[in-house]
Amino acid sequence: MTDRTLAELRADVREFVADELAHGRFTPMVDCWLTGWDEAFTRRLAHRGWIGMTVPTEYGGHGRSHVERFAVTEELLAAGAPVGAHWIADRQIAPSLLKFGTESQRRRLLPGIVAGEVFFGIGMSEPDAGSDLAAVRTRAEQVDGGWRVRGVKVWTSGAHAAHYFICLARTSPLDTSDRHAGLSQFIVDLRGPGVTVSPIRSMNGSHHFNEVLLDDVFVPDEMVFGDIGNGWLQVTSELAFERSGPERFLSTFPLVAKLADEPDLARSSPAFGANIARLAGLHTMSESVAHTLAAGHDADVAAAVVKVLGTTLEGDIADDVDVILGDDVHQPELARLVSTATDQRPGFTLRGGTNEVLRGVIARGLGMR
Question: In this protein, which residues make up the domain named Acyl-CoA oxidase/dehydrogenase middle (predicted)?
């Protein structure tokens, strides 16, 4: 795809966003990909062909490139648009289904994802396990016709509104010499028997995270995801999509954009120019990962680098604008964005794997440990 065509695509998205704003269909928000659940907005994006862009046409998708998808998602994130409803399904589940799913699973789930009608969560993290996914205690036991799953998952964004999540569970006893062995994944119906979704509320009272209790949940054989025992390889592949995208450095971009509209405030920020430069660098790095994934290559280490640097920057932006705004009562819109950013800030470096853990991933990938 030529640079000119890509620029035209970005212009189309910006025109769409401007029209949405003009009609009052959304208000720009911080962390829009996590907290902005708006199914009507998602359906309008789907109608424009901007969900499932990289999904082959045989599954209802659009057969476009990862770079084109990157351009669309970057524009939507920069605008603070409410993309949360389809985000996980489009970013992570669709490419994982194409890589590891059965033909039946692809035909059953991908058309709904592309249409903005089927929503997913992620069932990885657990209490007391944190970013150490090899420590998960959720277990799956084989029974006639399928598997029985028991355990608890936390930080499952959107599980209260999603249809499914992909659950990581242990299917064989822990081998202390190889903690990554014996893990498997399952597509779990979040509205099925034995599933209880309980809200985890943020300090400001908002609700987008959840705890999911799996009490002897039956998963039929046709909803086993990938190969039994191959869960660790699959999860690490999925995490490359989760960690490398523009959402890892643009969660607080609406703050930067709003600050740029207030030149006096922007000039009072010693970090404003440096943060713009950091954003530009991360844009290039993240786009490079999109090219790598498009070529079918692994990008685990590069994705971890983007995640560590990007989420650190997101927090720095929140802190910087919070300090320079102070008690200024004449900037209500900026104050609203800052309030959300400071509330969400602790999660920036936690979700998708803590930055401390990812530094270890980077060191190992570079042969340093």
Answer: 122-217
